[in-house]
Amino acid sequence: MEDFIARTLAGEAPPVQRCQRGPVRLEWLEEGVMQLTPAGPTRGALVVSAGIHGNETAPVEMLSELLAPLLRGETPLVWRLLVVLGNPAALRAGRRFIDYDLNRLFGGRWQTAEPGTETARAARLEAALETFFSAGDEAIRWHLDLHTAIRASAFPRFGVLPARPRAWPEDFLMWLGDAGLQALVFHRTPGGTFSHLSCERFAALSCTLELGKALPFGQNDLSRFSLTQRALAALLDGSPLPASDIAPRRFEVAQQLTRRSEHFVLHMTGDTENFTVFNAGTLLAEDGDERYYAQENERVLFPNPSVALGLRAGLMLKEIK
């Protein structure tokens, strides 16, 4: 069990699927999915996921370091914990995805996409969350989905929160700030992401944590995200976390740039960073007769003109004062 991530990346199952490490029971459920259950009282149910995109390796390396003392029985655990490596096939291939972007397929959207590696994986992960959350009656449910961005960012560490009908609890948002996130982005419409699935279907407090730029295994400088790693370690073992003296800036999605046809053109250079500001009236993108213009002081997030037809090619944000 101690080599859970290494075996997953190698495409191997562990020789033992259940074992005890100190007060924590370890269960290998399927490829890339493991549950850790402490013997004593728990704070709640927590899902920590990484590798939804196979080219985003820093969170996988970070998760490996966080899990190591738990899997050796050296540190306590105060949550019922589900650990997920989202897309093992893409991680092994060093590709963002094999057939289709996995993080657009959740919430049953996999049922209408062309069958392939990611549609099957989305179905399995939805079932894994269903089983995990239905097995307990915890009032507190969290899901932290660890990612890296394709592009550099004016805020290297930021969080994206899914649409939610109720206000977000301030203690959850404060924890994200204490974990070193410099900006928080609030979605206002549903999406096909893993974090939206856990929030919408299982009432989890969910966040996609974007931690730097996507790089191959071995090329990540994890010291840049030491605040986040320290916060995650403290979350797992229940130790106190020092409060940050800088609150993350908050943004909401103002408009989405959608690539509807092969004629889509994004009027941004390949080195345009996330959170770049555009003046009001700037032509952002066009698709046939459709034009997208910036409103006052909007910032771009996730600009990508190469997405599949019908998917977002970027989000425009406005700051919440």
Automatic annotation (TrEMBL):
**Alphabetically ordered keywords of this record:** Arginine metabolism, Hydrolase, Metal-binding, Zinc
Q: What is its EC number?
A: 3.5.1.96
Q: Pathway, per Swiss-Prot/TrEMBL? A: Amino-acid degradation; L-arginine degradation via AST pathway; L-glutamate and succinate from L-arginine: step 5/5
Cite the AstE/AspA barrel-sandwich hybrid domain residue spans from the record.
249-319
- Pfam families on file: AstE_AspA_cat (PF24827), AstE_AspA_hybrid (PF04952)
* Domain Succinylglutamate desuccinylase/Aspartoacylase catalytic residue range list: 45-235
Superkingdom of the organism of origin: Bacteria
Alphabetically, the GO molecular function entries are:
hydrolase activity, acting on ester bonds; succinylglutamate desuccinylase activity; zinc ion binding
The EC category is hydrolase
Active-site positions on this chain: 210
Q: Which residues bind Zn(2+)?
A: 53, 56, 147
InterPro entries associated with the record: AspA/AstE_fam, AstE_AspA_cat, Aste_AspA_hybrid_dom, SuccinylGlu_desuccinylase
List GO BP terms, alphabetically. L-arginine catabolic process to L-glutamate; L-arginine catabolic process to succinate
Fetch the PANTHER family from UniProt: ASPARTOACYLASE (PTHR15162), SUCCINYLGLUTAMATE DESUCCINYLASE (PTHR15162:SF7)
Q: State the family it belongs to.
A: Belongs to the AspA/AstE family. Succinylglutamate desuccinylase subfamily.
- In the record's cofactor note, how is the cofactor described as bound? Binds 1 zinc ion per subunit.
What species does this protein belong to? Cronobacter condimenti 1330
- Which named protein is this? Succinylglutamate desuccinylase
Among NCBIfam families, the record links this protein to: arg_catab_astE (TIGR03242), PRK05324.1 (NF003706)
